[in-house]
Amino acid sequence: MDAFVAMPVGGTRESFFPPTLRERFESTFDVRWTDRDRQLSESELAEEVGEAEVLVTGWGSPQVTAAVLDAAPELQVLAHTGGSVATYASAACYDRGVTVLSANDEMARFVAEQVVASVVAWRRRLPQFDRAMRDGEWDAGETVESLRGADVGLVGLGTIGRFLLDHLQSWDVSVTVYDPYLDDGALDDWPFATRGELADALESDVVSLHASLTPETEGMLGPDELARVPDGAVFVNTARAALVDEAALRAELESGRIDAVLDVFHDEPLPADDPLREMNNVLLTPHTGGSRVRPPLTASVLDDLERYERGEPLEHAVSREQWQLMTR
Questions:
Q1: Residue 268 appears among annotated catalytic residues
Q2: From the candidates 124, 287, 307, 309, which is the catalytic residue?
Q3: 270, 269, 194, 207: which is closest to 239 by C-alpha?
Q4: Are 81 and 316 in contact (CB under 8 A)?
Q5: pLDDT tens digit sequence for 154-174
Q6: How confident is the model at residue 257 (pLDDT cuts 50, 70, 90)?
Q7: Active-site entry in 123, 240, 250, 316
Q8: Which of 55, 61, 149, 244 could form an SS bridge with 221, CB 3.0 to 4.6 Å?
């Protein structure tokens, strides 16, 4: 099959396609790579895609619109090396029968891993002990808590939340999941997890946010919702900052009433003078939940492309219904 990679020349493409994966891709497909050193525009993508049967996109690629599809009559598969394809695929892709693949499931594994690592580190006060020892102290006087036996609330479930439940099985936790889109029986594999209302999930020792950002969910957690988070709880956001009222969250953190683990921000990169950087009750990471572990993302997409060519069932296809609910 003929494939075209729309990711521009540079370090990002090389990190997603190290030599071993590039060689693997080129040994199976007839691959063309754009030679531009910047992101293509929609019209440039339409011009370059040509007779490709497979189009590979990355972060910042233009959306595959009806106009792009008009210029790509042979296109069968859109394969995205990132997670959400909400802004890369279009309704036209589904209308015309283009199969949409994504590394969303693989990326979700790494986000879930970071949630557990961050929460355990915070409840064990590892960042505080590290800072104290670097300042010459031996005992920072911090009270240490374990994740074991904690009440955990998940706001939204999705793929990340499901992998997170897998991790939490060994921690003897009790989990409340709020997700109005859950099917009956969705939690059957995790007997320690139960469905609840938003208020139930928020009233937990650890509250982790996993809802997709859509017009319906933007700003879903405001002052009243955040006030339900118990004193001393840890609020975790590895989803999108816009799900939370910024002023309300900052007010809670400034009061010192709750702690937070934040991987996403309203303004990215986070400004150097942002007060969050000075708060001792906040653990900050620069939107790295799933984005820094890159070759496995590409490998998962290549796995499915090879399955597609062999006529085998796909593992990473994104249905129209899933696409409609993904973060935009």
A1: yes
A2: 287
A3: 207
A4: no
A5: 999 999 999 999 999 999 999
A6: very high
A7: 240
A8: 244
